[in-house]
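User: I'm putting together notes for a lab meeting next week and I want to include a structural view of one of the chains we've been expressing. I don't have a solved structure, so I'd like a prediction I can at least talk through. The sequence is below, exactly as it appears in our construct file.
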Amino acid sequence: MRPIWTGAIGFGLVNIPVKLYSATQSSSLDFDMLDSKDLSNIRFQRINENSGKVVEWSNIVKGYKLEDKYVVLTDKDFEAASAKKSKVIEITDFVDEAEIDTIYYDTPYYLEPEKNGARAYALLRDALVKTNKVGVGTYVLRNKESLALIKPHEEVIVLNKIRFAEEVRDHKELTVPEKTKANSKELDLAISLIDQLSEKFDLATFKDSYTESLLNVIKAKAKGAKITSPEMKVVHTKTDDLMAQLKASLGTKKKKAS
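Assistant: Thanks for the context. Below is the predicted structure for the 258-residue chain, given as structure tokens.
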């Protein structure tokens, strides 16, 4: 893996030099866009809207429109906004992870210590494990300040980017049922159904079956097989009786994740 950022974790007066790596990878298939006439690859170009000519990456700059005029910014200008923040993941608080709703979670990254930071890295990791706490702080990546959750994952420290409160839309714009007292019998059956389907979470039991099936379709089509797709229908329940649906659900065998 190649690091996408180098800097340090600020932990009180302790400074831990680290490298940041992407912790995830896509499981989907990589498709190319082709011309249907001759299956040639489609190329995307950066066109100057005035001249109509292609612009090379080396000639492209970033600009912000201020009072009808563009102000061009360089990497040094971005760093000048906050030179310290652009190089330091500053932990300002330690909290219980359960206090952070999963709606705020965004992208996970691995943190690897530089050789001279290994001891301090291990200290922070082990202290987080012992206290059952996670660190919260800010950092700058790709010219944008972000909020980070710092937590141990096995032997590595993970930085999980989390969203600022203003980045999450207000759900009050949606039309949802008001909070009312549920029918006690229906609630008891719903809890029984949850209990019936409850087990210890094992991520390994969940597979990306769609990508696998799609690859099988591609291979079959490459061999000249005729591809037929099943008719998909939205199946509605035969009754609006919620109690009847819950009782029928309890009578079915538990399905394993595929």
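A couple of points you could mention at the meeting. The chain has two domains: 5-26+60-165, 184-250. The mean pLDDT is 85.

User: Perfect, that's what I needed.
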